[in-house]
């Protein structure tokens, strides 16, 4: 596989995440997309309008995100902040034998459940700078693809 043919689903906390974190996530995601095929978010991560809380909208997000997990070649999960949705996505990925790279900013603590995953295709990495996380994605892909 060439880098541009590798489909990455980039999951993270969004609904309850602070705006600064969402902007950081966008920058990291943009850097990944320069090299790999990164599947799109359903909506823009900084757009948390009240009308996006309807049952219909939430069902569309569930379907979209689940399909992205099932379609991807690699699930990169940014786990610095707790998120029930991200936990569900990780469960989908594990149950469907998707390679997973969980990354966490060093100043945060990832869930013990996440750090305890025991799978051949799962790695956990703590980073201080985005460049470190991006390098780890490259290493993971070199190892697994």
What does this molecule look like?
The protein is an alpha/beta fold. The chain has one domain (3-144): 3-Layer(aba) Sandwich (Rossmann fold). It has five helices and five strands, in the order E-H-E-H-E-H-E-H-E-H. The chain has helices at residues 19-33, 55-71, 84-95, 112-115, 130-144, and strands at residues 7-12, 37-38, 74-78, 100-105, 122-127. A five-stranded parallel β-sheet has the order 2-1-3-4-5, with helices on both faces. It is globular. It starts with 6 loop residues before the first strand and ends with a helix. The mean pLDDT is 92.
Say what the CATH topology is.
Answer: Rossmann fold
Helix content: 40-55%
β-strand amount: 15-25%
Shape by Cα distribution: globular
**How many strands in all?**
5
Low-confidence stretches: none
Q: What is the overall pLDDT average?
A: 92
**Tell me about the biggest sheet?**
5 strands, parallel
Strand order of the largest sheet: 2-1-3-4-5
Which CATH class applies here?
A: Alpha Beta
Question: What is the H-and-E element order?
Answer: EHEHEHEHEH
Distance between the termini: 7 Å
Task: Please indicate the count of domains.
Answer: 1
The secondary-structure class comes to: alpha/beta
With helices defined by DSSP (H or I, 4 residues minimum), what is the helix count?
A: 5
Tell me what the CATH architecture is: 3-Layer(aba) Sandwich
The rounded Rg comes to 14 Å
